[in-house]
Design a protein that fits this description.
single chain; alpha/beta; Rossmann fold; N-(1-d-carboxylethyl)-l-norvaline Dehydrogenase, domain 2; 3 domains; eight-stranded mixed beta sheet
Length: about 425
């Protein structure tokens, strides 16, 4: 029996992916109502394929709020999402409380792996604390880099690229139960010391950030000099030093929670240990500037030309195929446009409009456009690409369409009479 402790986004997806590999699974969470909800196939997170994954494997997974059931599990994964505060710093208190509450319910011979994203030094410190308390399973404590990507979590959990495993002793053989789970996914295994694995997760995200920041910087330059970034990106993908899968799509900075969390973590560690990390601060500044690209366009094209304009916003989630609003550029735009009337639509995300924001939520994309002077597409949901630009134009009063990610067909929008603006393209 394989156990998962903490049924947030990470725990839900990984427990079901484990069941899909043929393992019997117990998913534990102290929230009994959440366990009942999950047992009936109702999920608090949105992921493509999640419902189908549950329906196909529900006979092998049980969700429970009874910690005593963890005693029959080996291996056990701690799988609680670690949230971030307004400054993108990790809040480890809920994770520590959860581990402390179930430590005595886990079998002394079980192998336990921390799946949560934690700062370097966390796992070794936890092992030290547990050893002092006489917790036997601390001798088989590992840290494993999770592969969760909102909007693509099911695919990545079922078919991981590799498993990065933090170990107290990387040269020692992995325990049989844990090795059996790892090998069931058929991907390379990379054992290393705890701190290396914890930093490896951050390293992956920082390399991603460097690509995102470079792409966004050059895409803006394209707009100013008459170039088109979409013509340049294929040349980069054919360069073996960059690669076919490089992140080369311009965007609105670094959204979500984990990337900025890792930048903040590295900056903090560098400050504490006396190393130089000015490039990290530059990435943060770059991201904040990119986030406001749409706001600058709206000011230039709508606010400066019309008094008290009505604005339509498509997309609230920080990216498609998720209902997460963490660090959403759309919410930042809405806050910046607080004095102006706005109607927004998102297929899944449902924020609570703050008082004074003058934001209304529509039941459909076209409903949000009724009488609008400008439309801003802040999340490139696939649903939006299937809407006829002529119908969008007919619903609106104005003709400004700001589409950073190119969710709509540019030629069709121009033909419908829109003044169309996309990231990385000179108008």
């Amino acid at each position: 029996m394989t156990g998962f402790i903490g049924l947030s986004h990470l725990g839900i997806v990984y427990s079901l992916a484990t069941a899909a590999r043929g393992f019997e699974v117990i998913g534990f969470d102290p929230d009994a109502a959440l366990c009942d909800q999950l047992s009936n196939g109702r999920f608090p997170v949105a992921e493509p394929g999640l419902t189908d994954l549950f329906q196909s494997n529900r006979s092998r997974v049980r969700f429970s709020s009874r910690a005593v059931e963890l005693n029959e599990c080996d291996p056990v994964f701690v799988s609680l999402d670690v949230s971030t505060d307004q400054s993108n710093r990790s809040d480890l208190a809920p994770l520590n409380r959860l581990i402390d509450s179930v430590a005595g319910d886990i079998s002394p011979t079980a192998t336990v792996a921390i799946l949560c994203q934690v700062p370097p030094g966390f796992t070794r410190s936890l092992k030290t604390v547990l050893d002092r308390r006489g917790v036997k399973w601390a001798g088989n404590l590992f840290y494993q880099v999770e592969t969760l990507v909102f909007g693509n979590a099911v695919e990545r959990a079922l078919r991981p690229e590799r498993f990065i495993i933090g170990c107290a002793n990387p040269r020692a053989p992995l325990p049989g139960s844990y090795a059996g789970w790892l090998n069931a996914f058929g991907c390379p295994l990379l054992p290393m010391r705890y701190e290396s694995a914890e930093l490896a997760k951050i390293a992956i995200n920082l390399f991603l950030v460097s690509t995102v920041s470079t792409t966004n910087t050059l895409a803006e330059l394209c707009e100013k000099i008459g170039a088109d970034w979409s013509e340049i990106a294929p040349a980069l993908r054919l360069d073996k030093r960059i690669g076919a899968h490089a992140y080369l799509s311009p965007g609105l900075g670094i959204a979500g929670g984990n990337l900025e969390r890792d930048l903040v973590t590295v900056k903090k560690l560098a400050d504490e240990r006396g190393t130089e990390a000015g490039v990290v601060e530059a990435w943060l500044l770059n991201s904040r500037y990119r986030r406001d690209w749409a706001l600058r366009k709206v000011h230039e094209l709508v606010l400066s030309a019309k008094e008290n304009p009505a604005l339509a916003i498509w997309g609230l989630a920080y990216k498609p195929d998720t209902n997460s609003l963490k660090n959403s550029p759309s919410l930042a735009l809405i806050e910046a446009l607080a004095p102006f009337a706005k109607v927004a639509y998102d297929p899944q995300a449902r924020p609570n409009p703050s008082s004074g924001s003058r934001l209304q939520l529509a039941g459909s994309a076209l409903e949000a456009c009724q009488g609008a002077d400008g439309l801003i597409v802040m999340t490139p949901w696939k649903e939006f690409s299937g809407i006829d630009p002529a119908k969008i134009k007919a619903a609106m009063k104005g003709n400004v369409l700001v589409d950073p990610f190119g969710a709509l067909n540019q030629a069709a929008c121009v033909q419908a009479g829109f003044a169309y603006h996309k990231l990385g393209v000179s108008v």
